[in-house]
């Protein structure tokens, strides 16, 4: 019998876990032998199909069962096939030479991995360890050559599962907001090799739905090494955008990925297809933002611009570093929530309109809001001035010293001091002054050296309690204040919010620098005009008692100018006079439930902080105290019964032309100007109609001219009744009779007990002052007797 030599093969994995095929549970299938351990099956076949399972009896170190081949061919072979890749470090070999043919060669050929063939020379009954150090093999082919007839076999095979790429799972996204999300993965196995890198790859789904390392538009975020759960906080994402992402891990065998997952950031993100805010294609998702949207403006090549006519809205807006948002003239933006400003935020204006911005929440971040306020100028020193206020908080006045006009050491910017002498109320800063920041809601006069914009850079006033400023009832009682917001404010809402005894009247006065051919003049606004004060616009109020007035967020609006006509139409008259150079106006409104007396917020005096040598105004139809009104509001009924006293200031010799513009009066109603000096009535409501006179005396008050609204014809027999005449106290020593014109009159004064304390006669001139004797404090009755009748009125001396 031939001597049987056994080949013992030792296979060792690179991991600490190993398995040994010792054939104790093997199956002899006749032509092959198989054994399965730990999910791995080894199948042994021979070139002669005679693989056999037998008890080796401990031959040359074998134990238990062995697998062998019996052949008479000196080029026999054996093949071992594994169901999964394994690592083989070495093989322990045995062989027998039955016919004395001498030394044979044994060749080990691997399949799988990048491994080399190993050839060893052997002699009969010789055993030795052959070092292989193979990895990732699935087949070992063993062949014999040379020498005589050979027989050989195998016993224990010690192996481990081969090193593979890692096993990774991708976890669902969490903490997803408009520009950030938390992405995670789990490395459940390292594949028998150390993890050298792990992390997340992600991309915008529309750009790459299957992100991999190095893929198009893919961002890789690394997270160290090792197995287990890991997560990454991803920032800088585009709002309202769907992303695809995957977890990955790398070892020496390659890169593994989990399953691609997706998430969508909240809000909307700016894409920058073009700069038009109102173009839906610029946003992700592709709809124009609404009030509930949270927006992110990233640093893109093309950045958003809110153009004229666009009323943009959002809930929250984040402007990222190096990004920008612009509101152009005539555009507007309302943020219902908060602004996070880390880039550039610009609001523009020009000579005709302004950008407007309302922020209802808070402002954060390192960036300012820049309001570029356009101002004209003039080469004439007294012209080109503007009343301004800062529309933001934190702007330094010194920053404008290089932009304003100069006069010696004075700079063309000044606050108003109402206790100063008349010609020094504007307290101009000197070039050596360091006045610091603009006071919120304070008005300043300012003139630019060159027409253009001033950049008010700072933060938006967002105090829910509003912005308050003290007004002082000192000096002439006028206080320059202004709109502290980068939006318009409603003057009517502002005045209605003022405490009842704070101001002498609910009126604001603004400086119109372009009026009268650039000479400029003060214009008057009240609740009847519903005027919208522009961002950064200053104006005057007149204080009755010192205390605060407050601008609130609720007063903000995006609509500029006079907007009353957008409401229910009302009858109204604009009465004008011109001397051929200047044009002056006064307004009369007719509104339901108003009176012929003084209606605070609807009747407004002319601005008296400056001289008015040329002017037109009215006085109250009844109960006048001599207020020269720029605006008078009357009831919208009984037009025939209301005769309006008209006053003018004009020098002797001037040629004056009256004209008017009337709207919304009932059909058939006519408007006449009465001239008591010339005993004429002239209709001036028809197209191209006017009344022209040359003054033979200087006019400074009422009494000569009256305005009639009537459906009947008028004649010189129509007289002004005593409803237009008023008697009131100027001070403790003087009373004034107002509204009589060139009539003989007598005035008598009686104590409350009926004792006459004064009686005097005079010829009226429109306005007549009567000096009182030294009278005690108390109540007195004044009796006025005229050619038209009698008038009795009570006065109180204090």
Structural notes for this entry:
This protein has 6 domains: 18-160, Jelly Rolls (Sandwich), CATH 2.60.120; 167-264, Immunoglobulin-like, CATH 2.60.40; 268-367; 403-445 and 464-557, no CATH class; 572-710; 726-797, Sandwich (Immunoglobulin-like), CATH 2.60.40. The longest helix has 7 residues, at 491-497. Mean pLDDT is 88; it is low at 1-17 and 562-567. Strands 1, 2, 3, 4, 5, 6, 7, 8, 9, 10, 11 and 12 form a 12-stranded antiparallel beta sheet that branches. The protein is an all-beta fold and 798 residues long. It is rod-shaped, with a radius of gyration of 50 Å.
Which consecutive residue ranges, at least 5 long each, have pLDDT under 50? 1-17, 562-567
Q: Averaging pLDDT over every residue, what do you get?
A: 88
**Dominant shape:** rod-shaped
Structural class per helix/strand content? mainly beta
What share of residues are in beta strands? over 45%
Tell me about the largest β-sheet.
12 strands, antiparallel
Q: What is the β-strand count?
A: 65
CATH topology of the largest domain: Jelly Rolls
- The proportion of residues forming helix, as a percent range, comes to under 10%
